[in-house]
Amino acid sequence: MSTTTAPPRPSPGDIRRLLAAAFIGTALEWYDYFLYGTAAALVFNKLFFPSLDPATATIASFVTFAVGFVARPIGAAVFGHIGDRYGRKAALIITVVLMGASTGCIGLLPDYRTIGVWAPALLAALRFSQGISVGGEWSGAMLLTLEHTPEEKHGSYSSIPQLGSPVGTLLSSGAFALVGTLPDDAFYAWGWRIPFLAAFALLAFALYLRLRIEESPVFRAMRADAEREGPTSAPLIEAFRRTWGRMLIGVAAAFLGIGGFFLLTTYVISYGTERLDIGKSVMIDATLLAAVAEIAVIVVAGRLADRMGAWKVCAIGGVASVLVAFPAFWLIDTRHTGLVMLGVSLGVAVISIPYAAIGAVVTGMFPETVRYSAVAMAYNLAGVLGGLVPLVAAWLTGLADGASWGVALLLILIAACTATGSYLAGPPLRRRLGPDHPEHREHPATAKATA
After folding, report:
1. pLDDT band per the 50, 70, 90 thresholds, residue 441
2. Is-contact 121 239, C-beta < 8 A?
3. Which of 1, 105, 344, 432 lies 20 to 30 angstroms, CA to CA, from 287?
4. What is the model's pTM?
5. Of the given ranges (53-67, 195-209, 238-252, 394-408), which has the lowest mean pLDDT?
6. Measuring CA to CA, which residue among 255, 234, 190, 257 is closest to residue 370?
């Protein structure tokens, strides 16, 4: 391990500015990304696939939704290389520009009746671009946060970028709730476009924040080492060669926070409106209430991770999600407004327990020289699986003649994967590598920052 002198310890002001930029930038990225999920459930099936019957159009809409997740590993490879070779900050600036521009352009797209098959083709292309961006966003924000901050606080600090998810949901669902008050003719003609066009303004704000953050002290020390010894030629290939087993564990551990979330938000909106004939405003309001519950759970679970250990919090959250899967859907199936909101909130709150601490679990598994590539690939392979969840859920509901038991079993399977992966990332991995393994020893920059 190199003995390169570490950069100066970040000041408390630097850390506060970094945390604010990580949170706000991630919230705006997720606003853009989740906006598509809501529109896929409510708008795109009608405007971009009007020639299909309603059930098939919904599935087609979710196929374009899943395209963004298929693109995420490509983004992970691209931005992982940039982040490991040229800096975490450089990667994050590019991701936010790509996301904001892609989302804003969706708001400008003509529909199927105007340009025919080009409409869904362009929609899928822009969704693919969104996926490329998200492929590098989460890992970069998490690494910048944890590589600047003390290790004993990694549980709570890793939860701060995670708050971007419920805040992004609040912003996107809130935007759709506002335009959803328009008459249907106005909503489908132009109202749905407004939240997408707002992404251009949000992009300017997010870019301003990203330009002001400092580069990770760990990366600065790595760059000094690379100037003397030479950089890793292909960080992603090296990550697969050295850590492919850990990457699989990371995929399993992260699966519930992504797949479970989209099951209980994106798919449930479609399930409630299409299968249960619940008003779209009720389903959107349910996701808003769930996002508020998620914020509270993430804060509490992050603090618990500092005391208990991040892997324990993630494993407990996975087990708890298994237990509430059927009750959550039973509540939604009542069609009673209050119980529907309770069911969605209960499900989202419980799956948020592992989501809060997953950043500390996954980033702690990999050596810093290939960390961006390894973390990004592991998390975004979980994202590929997560993006397919609404599509699989729609198929299972069809097989069950509209009943929710198949979807509840799917949630149980996802939660069991996360509980198992979180445990494997804990004691078994530490025993295999050993406490003195080079990849468990701190880089001098980390030791300096956490002293």
Report:
1. very low
2. no
3. 105
4. 0.81
5. 53-67
6. 234
Q: Which amino acid is at 51?
A: S
Tell me what the pLDDT averaged over the chain comes to: 84
Residues, the chain: 451
Angle (deg, nearest 10), helices 310-333 and 154-162: 40
> How far apart, in whole angstroms, are the C-alpha atoms of residue 403 and residue 37?
22
Note the pLDDT of residue 38: 76
Q: What percent of the chain clears pLDDT 90, i.e. is strictly above it? A: 32
Instruction: Kindly report, residue by residue over 120-141, the tens digit of the pLDDT.
Output: 888 888 989 988 988 888 888 8
What distance lies between CA 383 and its chain's CA centroid? 7
d(CA 137, CA 132): 9
Q: Which of 260, 253, 280, 249 is nearest to 392 (CA)?
A: 260
Q: What pLDDT sits at residue 295?
A: 94
Task: Please report the pLDDT score of residue 10 as a whole number.
Answer: 61
Half-sphere exposure of 390 (CA within 13 A, CB side): 29
Pairwise CA distance, residues 310 & 303, whole Å: 10
Q: Which two tokens stand for residue 391?
A: 């599509």
Q: pLDDT (tens digit, 9 = 90+) per residue, 167-224?
A: 887 888 788 888 888 888 898 889 999 999 998 988 888 888 788 877 877 778 777 7
Instruction: List Cβ neighbours of 282 (8 Å cut-off, separation of 6 or more).
Output: 272, 337, 340, 341
Q: What is the 3-state secondary structure (H, E, C) of the chain?
A: CCCCCCCCCCCHHHHHHHHHHHHHHHHHHHHHHHHHHHHHHHCHHHHCCCCCCHHHHHHHHHHHHHHHHHHHHHHHHHHHHHHHHCCHHHHHHHHHHHHHHHHHHHCCCCCHHHHCCHHHHHHHHHHHHHHHHHHHHHHHHHHHHHHHCCHHHHHHHHHHHHCHHHHHHHHHHHHHHHHCCCCHHHHHHHHCHHHHHHHHHHHHHHHHHHHHCCCCHHHHHHHHHHHHHCCCCCHHHHHHHHHHHHHHHHHHHHHHHHHHHHHHHHHHHHHHHHHCCCCHHHHHHHHHHHHHHHHHHHHHHHHHHHHHCHHHHHHHHHHHHHHHHHHHHHHHHCCCHHHHHHHHHHHHHHHHHHHHHHHHHHHCCCCHHHHHHHHHHHHHHHHHHHHHHHHHHHHHHHHCCCCCHHHHHHHHHHHHHHHHHHHHCCHHHHHHHCCCCHHHCCCHHHHHHCC
30 vs 260, residue with greater confidence: 260
Residues 114, 122: Cα–Cα separation, whole Å:
13
* Integer Cα distance of 106 and 112 in angstroms: 13
